[in-house]
TrEMBL record:
It comes from Phaetusa simplex. The gene is Ttf1. This is TTF1 factor. PROSITE patterns: MYB_LIKE (PS50090). GO terms for biological process: termination of RNA polymerase I transcription. Pfam families: Myb_DNA-bind_6. It comes from the Eukaryota. GO terms for cellular component: nucleolus.
Length: 348
């Protein structure tokens, strides 16, 4: 029954009582036995970003299921509604060959998260670049007709469900997309200061009076300026920008302050920074970007926040690595080291 399912699942998912009853029933069927099996092996249930190892396991599970059933593509398997003429046959094969169990094999996560990850990995409508003005207008029109039916809207726009949902959340807010004004930047800085002050005062407890708290100067480490800030809350205080814009702008503000306005990524300095970044990443020999200590890596460019380094690496791989979306993290690094590095060193 539902109460027993909640009680048993709570051992593996502490926030389970915040999940809808319908989702709990599905998890009891799809996940509970798997979670217990993983527990016997001493493996904890995971959340957060998927590792390269987990992505590879998803690919393996999908490939094996396609071989067993004869379904000719991962897209047909995961986006069956796009193929109405084959829909009944595919759904029957999925039921007969226990698709849920096969997809989640060897991955200690809730089935729903594995399914969403697989759909993101194999969706041909992903990675289609920026939305044009015409596409944004279409998105508004389709939302007016279909509401939150992202599945329907994604089919009409040939974009992934996640992409159209996130883009609409940006469009519907009173967001400014132009250059930041002085007033907006000040609002951002005050908003960040406010949340950091609250956090520090909470940690201090009642050791200071309210008067002392409001007037004292605070000295904080770099970690507090960059790490796990509540961007949705900060964006609400700024009022005219989306949370991702606030995060990017704050990285720019921090970088300017930490480097005293020096241009670290232009001219010969920029070439040297790219060379250092590629060499350091290659030396790390990691298989997944989750394993990279971006904070430590920041001095490859200069005294900058880790978000700045991550952004520069993203631009580097997008501009220099052909078909980077289909390559693993280690393949991207190898390509940059073997193909791009000699070119940059010659330019320098």
């Amino acid at each position: 029954d539902l109460d027993t399912a909640k009680q048993e699942l709570e051992e593996f998912i502490p926030h389970v009582r915040n999940i809808s009853d319908n989702s709990i029933r599905k998890m009891a069927g799809r996940d509970l036995a798997r979670f217990k099996q993983f527990k016997k092996q001493g493996i904890a249930v995971k959340f957060g970003r998927f590792s390269q190892k987990e992505n590879n396991q998803i690919r393996k599970n999908i490939e094996e299921f396609l071989l067993i059933t004869g379904i000719d593509s991962a897209e047909k398997l995961l986006f069956t509604s796009r193929y109405p003429e084959d829909k009944d046959t595919i759904n029957r094969l999925k039921a007969d060959h226990l698709f849920c169990e096969k997809l989640s094999e060897g991955i200690p996560r809730p089935w729903r998260l594995i399914y969403y990850r697989a759909r993101k990995m194999f969706d041909s409508h992903n990675y289609k670049g920026r939305y044009s003005t015409e596409e944004k207008e279409k998105l508004k029109k389709y939302y007016a007709l279909h509401g939150n039916n992202w599945k329907k809207i994604s089919e009409l726009m040939s974009r992934s469900n996640l992409s159209v949902a996130m883009k609409y959340s940006e469009i519907k807010s009173a967001v400014n997309y132009g250059p930041w004004s002085k007033e907006e930047t000040q609002k951002l800085m005050h908003a960040v200061e406010e949340v950091i002050r609250k956090r520090i005062e909470k940690e201090d407890g009642n050791s200071l009076s309210s008067s002392e708290k409001s007037h004292r100067e605070i000295s904080i480490g770099r970690e507090a300026l960059c790490h796990k800030l509540p961007w949705t809350e900060i964006a609400a205080k700024v009022g005219t920008r989306f949370w991702r814009q606030c995060k990017q702008k704050w990285t720019t503000v921090l970088t300017n302050k930490m480097t005293k306005g020096q241009q670290l990524y232009r001219g010969t300095k920029g070439l040297q920074a790219k060379i250092n970044l590629i060499k350091r990443l290659y030396e790390m020999k990691v298989e997944d970007d989750n394993e990279v200590d971006w904070e430590k890596l920041s001095n490859a460019i200069g005294d900058v926040p880790k978000a700045y380094v991550q952004a520069k690496f993203y631009k580097l791989k997008v501009s220099c690595v052909p078909l980077w979306q289909k390559k693993t993290f280690s393949e991207i690094i190898d390509y940059l080291f073997e193909e791009k590095l000699p070119e940059l060193e010659e330019q320098l």
